[in-house]
Design a protein that fits this description.
Length: about 400
C-alpha cells in the first residue's frame, strides 16, 4: 500500500482505542483453539491484534457488555463544529469541471435525500478542497462510472457522458470465498462471532457459533445475499444449536470485474468475481478444508459433536443445507475440490475495482483528474488481515492526517 509504517501503526492504535476489544472466550472457542493447534496450525500467539501465522485470539468489535462498536464510534474524535454528517443521503454522482490542461477537476457531489429531492454539496475552496470517495469496493467504482470516469465504451452504451476514459475502473475486483462445515452440537453453545482464527499463508480458518443457520448464512455473519442462502424448506428452520467452521482464501488469484446495469445509483451494479477460476484458489481451499477436518476430529471437540456423526457426515449435512446459484455436481460431498467450487460463500470482504497504480496513485488520487481521491477497500490489491475493517478504518485516519500534513507544508 506504500504507507508510512509509523503513521500506519499510530492510526491502527487510534482505531483500536475506540472499537476493538479482547473477546471473552467460550467453551466452544477454547475447544476450537485447541483443535486448530492439534491440527498443526501453530504456534499459539495468544491475544493480539497483529497478523501472525499460527493460531491467535483476535480483537472483536463487541465490548465486555456485548455492545457492538462500528466506524461510527470514531466520530467521538471529531470536532462537531467542523463536520457535517448527512443521514439518509444517497450520492448520485461526482461533479467535474474543466481545469488546467483540460484535466477534469471535481468540485462537488450531487446527492438525493430521503424525500427524493436532489441537492449538491460544493467544495468551499476549489484551490485546495477535494472530494474523497469512500463508497467501498462496489460503490466507489460504480460512482466513478456514473460520474463519467470509467471504460468509455461501457459508459457510452448507457448514455453517460464520458469525463475520462479510464478502462481499469471496475477491473481487478475480487472476493475471498469461504467454505464452511456445519457442526450440530448435543449441548448448548454460546453465541459468538469470530474470536479465534487460524492463519496460514493461503487461507484463514474461522468459527462462529450459537446462531440460527438461516440467519447466519443469509444475513450478516456469512452471507451471499441473493446469490446464496440456506434452503428455507429444509430442516434448518429450527433454532440451531452448534456452530460452523470456515476456511477463507487469504489472497485469491481469481479476479473479475464490475459493470453498471443502468444509470440509477440506487441499483446494484453487476459484479463477476470468477470464483475459483484459477487452480491455485482451489488448492488453497482444499488445504483449508483439510485443516477443518483435522480440527473437528480432535479430542477437544468431542463434546460438541454427536458421537454417531463422522466429519464426512457433517460435510454431507452442510452440502444439503446450502443453496446458491452455482452449478452443483454429484460429487460435491466426496471431492473437496468440488465442494469448494460448488458451495462457496462470501463473507463480504470484496476489494479492488479502483486499485492503487491502476485507478489511483500511491497518494490515493484518481489518475487523470484533480481534486478527487478514493480511500477504501476498492483500492486494495488483496483483502488485508482476517477481517479488513481495521485496515479500512486505519486508512481513513491515515489519509486524513496525511492530507492535513500536506496542506500545512503548502502553507509554510
Amino acid at each position: 500500500m506504500g504507507l508510512n509504517s509509523e503513521l500506519a501503526n499510530q492510526s491502527f492504535q487510534w482505531v483500536e482505542k475506540e472499537v476493538a476489544y479482547e473477546p471473552q472466550m467460550t467453551q466452544w472457542t477454547s475447544a476450537y483453539k485447541d483443535g486448530l493447534l492439534e491440527a498443526g496450525v501453530t504456534p499459539f500467539n495468544g491475544f493480539t491484534f497483529d497478523h501472525l501465522y499460527g493460531t491467535k485470539i483476535g480483537g472483536t468489535t463487541f465490548d465486555q457488555n456485548g455492545h457492538r462498536h462500528t466506524a461510527a464510534d470514531l466520530l467521538t474524535y471529531a470536532d462537531p463544529t467542523k463536520i457535517t454528517v448527512l443521514l439518509h443521503a444517497t450520492a448520485q454522482r461526482i461533479l467535474f469541471r474543466n481545469g488546467g490542461m483540460n484535466r477534469p477537476v471535481a468540485y462537488g457531489v450531487e446527492y438525493k435525500d430521503d424525500a427524493s429531492n436532489i441537492h449538491v454539496a460544493y467544495l468551499k475552496d476549489c484551490s485546495t478542497g477535494e472530494v474523497i470517495l469512500t463508497a467501498g469496493a462496489l460503490g466507489s467504482p460504480q460512482l466513478l462510472m456514473l460520474s463519467g470516469v470509467g471504460p468509455a465504451d461501457h459508459l457510452k452504451s448507457l448514455g453517460i457522458e464520458v469525463v475520462l476514459d479510464q478502462p481499469m475502473v471496475g477491473h481487478g475486483i475480487s472476493d475471498n470465498p469461504m467454505s464452511v462445515v456445519v457442526i450440530p452440537s448435543p449441548q448448548p453453545v454460546e453465541i459468538t462471532s469470530v474470536q479465534v482464527v487460524g492463519i496460514r499463508p493461503s487461507y484463514y480458518v474461522e468459527s462462529m457459533t450459537g446462531l440460527n443457520l438461516v440467519a447466519a448464512l443469509s444475513a450478516d455473519v456469512i452471507t451471499v445475499s441473493s446469490t446464496s442462502t440456506f434452503n428455507e424448506d429444509s430442516e434448518d428452520i429450527f433454532p440451531f444449536q452448534g456452530g460452523l467452521i470456515g476456511a477463507k482464501l487469504s489472497h485469491p488469484v481469481s479476479r473479475g470485474y464490475l459493470r453498471l446495469k443502468n444509470r440509477n445509483p440506487e441499483d446494484n451494479p453487476s459484479v463477476t468475481y470468477n470464483y475459483f477460476k484459477e487452480p491455485a484458489d482451489v488448492e488453497a481451499c482444499v488445504e483449508g478444508m483439510k485443516t477443518i477436518k483435522r480440527a473437528i476430529d480432535t479430542e477437544g471437540f468431542t463434546k460438541f459433536r454427536y458421537p454417531n456423526q463422522s466429519v464426512q457426515d457433517l460435510i454431507t449435512l452442510s452440502a444439503s443445507l446450502i443453496v446458491n446459484n452455482r452449478a452443483r455436481n454429484a460429487n460435491d460431498t466426496t471431492s473437496l475440490e468440488q465442494y469448494c467450487k460448488d458451495l462457496a460463500l462470501t463473507i463480504w470482504h470484496y476489494h479492488g475495482g479502483c486499485q492503487v497504480g491502476l485507478v489511483v496513485d500511491y497518494d490515493y488520487k484518481v489518475l487523470g483528474v484533480d481534486a478527487l481521491r478514493v480511500v477504501d477497500g476498492s483500492t486494495f490489491n488483496f483483502s488485508p488481515g482476517t477481517n479488513p475493517q481495521a485496515t479500512v478504518m486505519m486508512l481513513g485516519r491515515y489519509m486524513g492526517v496525511h492530507i492535513q500534513n500536506q496542506r500545512l507544508k503548502q502553507d509554510e
